[in-house]
Amino acid sequence: MEICSKLLSVEQKDGIFLARTDAADIKICFVTEEIVRIRASFDREMAEESYILMTTAWPDRLDHVFEGERTRVTPVQPKVTETDAAVTLETGKLKLTIEKDPICIQLLDEERMELYQSLAGCPFVLDSNRRVVSYARMKEEDCFYGFGEKAGLLNKNKTFLRQRATDAMGYDAEKMDTLYKHIPFYIRLDRDTRKAVGVFYHNFYESVFNMGCEKSNYWPRYTYWQADGGDVDMFLLGGGTLARIVDNYTLLTGRPALLPKRAYGYQGSSMYYPELEKDSDKAVLEFIDTIKEEGFPIDGFHLSSGYTSYQNKRCVFTWNTERFPSPSGYFGAMNEKGAQNVPNVKPGILLCHPWFEEFAGKDVFVKDSKNTDTYGVGKWWGGDGAFWDFTKPEAREAWKKYLTDNVIDVGTDSIWNDNCEFDSLMDKDCVCDFDGKGGTIGQLKPLMSTLMCKLSNDAVREHNPKARPYSVCRSGSAGIQRYAQTWCGDNYTSWKSLQYNIPIIAGMGLSGQPHEGADIGGFAGPAPEEELFVRWVQQGIFQGRFSIHSASNDNTVTEPWMYRNSADIIRSAILLRYRMTPYIYSNVYEATRSGAPIMRALVYEFQNDPKVYDESFEYMFGRDLLIANVIEKGAATKKVYLPAGCKWYDWNDNFACYEGGQTIEVPVTMETIPMFVREGAIIPMADNQLMNMERDHTTALHLILAPGGDRSYTVYDDDGVSNDYREGAYRKTEITMSGDAVVKVSFKAEGSYKDHVETVTAEMIRKDRSPFWVTLDGQKLEHYLNRRKFEAAESGWYYSQTKRAVLVKYPNPKKDTTLVVSFEDFDLIGM
């Protein structure tokens, strides 16, 4: 056992510091002024070979694998101060102090508030089982968020968590651990200072986090992370706020992808159709037709692996021609209907696969630990199988070719990477190529799914450089956000899953992945009862992925029209998501710039309100809409906490106004989705009903505005299908809103993408009075006192006494413009 107990020396070379201790070497590098890397190595090798880091300040052996993706920066040079007791490294944002004896690492922000402190005398340990351990101080009631995809409440204080991705079909969403992702990253929030810090361990051996559920009287309160091997390669992320920390984390591990618009529409799916004995293609096409006949929108279909059935076994890259006689004809028909297939592919290859010998001859598999001349074998669907090694260059090229020839070229730019946890390969000493160096599956396992998604994207772009890939993945490591949309696996049909899938998704949002959803209605178990299904759809429309998917055990198929008495309610909810397309896609764009979640934990937006620190079930949809879904069976009312610091307006009650910082109780029916507009909100919607996010355009823009302080919002649009946005074919409209007595709303656009908006309606909430006048670019708009006449007019304004909000409408001027609404006093009597 080796324990770092004292600092012996510190030296600097090429902007990186090497601290030598009595047990390990510690490399320290400020990647930015807010990101510091502290890497403790007991073998002192410290090879740089990352599949995950997308911003580095050092050369890496794998840089060539990520050419065009990875950014090299120059290390920030801190001010260095050394005394007999400590060494201090200081940037404009952070101050890192290393006390010498006993060694203790402390991180302060620019206001000299403590963000992080290790345990003195044992910050890093190599235990007697050769596991590495990192110990940190905590306060009793600290909040801990993130950790990737985790069951239970959002705040993980006093929990014990494993980082080990497993195939957890039918999991208990409140209590089970582990699930499908491996993301060793968390955010610590100090209740006293209201300051936060991010901690990312760049190590993908199986590991555990103990977040204060262990206590020893010989030490102050502590947490620890423990991994089965590797280095303690820790990144501390400053910034103080959760938003800045997520921004820094996604700068480090990769920005979320801008997926095609269809990725955010309704993705139909069920294991039922591809498992039919024959004519599955006709059944799926009929499903799409029925969707449209019933008045539901649709954008795609997740095609389960039954299409690959060979002698009743799933054999990737093959086609069952009894079920799909003409794969290209079927794909073409689906594309014509605006519902592109997202076909399921899996990295496990059954030993009975008809092409197995061909694959083995290309040497594409993870190797056996005892005989590297052959492949390792693990359990797989239908028998034993071998597993593709995505850390081998030749295997990556082979996978892309098989994927292109047998799936993409058939007629899709979308891939569903499934069952890619590599969970059933039990021998963790099985050998991976590791790009020529050699490694073990125990070292690299969670990276396989992320590399698999990189390959599906690369294959799509190599097949058609103009196509924007859409990859969906069940598993993933840190960094999965830069390649794929994900979902929280094969959930069980229950009220508990509906409830706890919310903090699971919100936790992924705080772990850098905004594109997370759940199988609406539940995947495993019986069909959802009617009320549960309605409530699940009403929640699901706010997720980063919206798919109704099932493999019910009672011979039923979960479809949006399955309950006739509630079909209208379900249709209304899904149509609302489609009218929200401008808001959703603009939030997606924001995510690509800063990692901002789509479904946001309240603490992300309201860090200065301690009452939201433990809130798991309310959330923000984007920046400006609070959602408090009804997730209790038989509820007649809903209690809602409205965060402090602003006013709130009830979407369902004519914008009834409430002060923040209080809990209210509102009546609910089956139709009710409790939604509250935040003061300062700018919410773009479509007045024309979109039925397909990829093909339909917003022609009638509806802006919901809730003036309060100076606010801005970027409405983003592009063609939603190509990569032309990279060349400037986008439209970004910066909307700024300011003022009180006179509210000024300015629109400034950039980019070459066509503006499809023909009419604009601004709905501005103002509860105390009607406007005095309204101008557009200095020209007064006509005031209508009659709603019917206002609706018949091309432009003008009308004050709704029911909502206490002004409606302003006008033809889109197709240029930068300014709308001014005056709420100044009007002396009607003249005195």
Properties at a glance:
eight-stranded antiparallel β-sheet; single chain; eight-stranded parallel barrel; 57 strands; 831 residues; 13 helices; globular; alpha+beta
List the helices and strands and how they pair.
Blueprint: E1 2-3, E2 7-13, E3 16-21, E4 25-30, E5 35-41, E6 55-56, E7 71-72, E8 79-82, E9 86-90, E10 94-100, E11 103-109, E12 114-117, E13 124-126, E14 132-137, E15 143-146, E16 160-163, E17 181-182, E18 185-189, E19 196-201, E20 207-210, E21 222-227, E22 232-240, H1 242-253, E23 266-269, H2 280-293, E24 300-303, E25 309-310, E26 313-314, H3 327-336, E27 340-345, E28 348-350, H4 356-361, E29 378-380, E30 383-387, H5 393-411, E31 414-417, E32 431-432, E33 439-440, H6 441-444, H7 447-463, E34 470-473, E35 476-477, E36 485-487, H8 495-509, E37 516-520, H9 530-540, E38 545-548, H10 567-579, H11 581-594, E39 599-601, H12 602-605, E40 619-621, E41 625-627, E42 637-642, E43 647-650, E44 656-659, E45 662-667, E46 675-678, E47 682-686, E48 700-705, E49 711-718, E50 730-738, E51 742-750, E52 759-765, E53 773-776, E54 779-780, H13 787-792, E55 796-800, E56 805-811, E57 817-822
Parallel strand pairs: 6-7, 17-35, 23-24, 23-38, 24-27, 27-31, 31-34, 34-36, 36-37, 37-38, 48-52
Antiparallel strand pairs: 1-13, 2-3, 3-4, 4-5, 5-22, 8-9, 9-10, 10-11, 11-12, 13-14, 14-21, 15-18, 16-20, 18-19, 19-22, 20-21, 25-26, 28-30, 29-30, 32-33, 39-40, 40-41, 41-46, 42-45, 43-44, 43-46, 47-48, 49-50, 50-51, 51-57, 52-56, 53-54, 53-57, 55-56
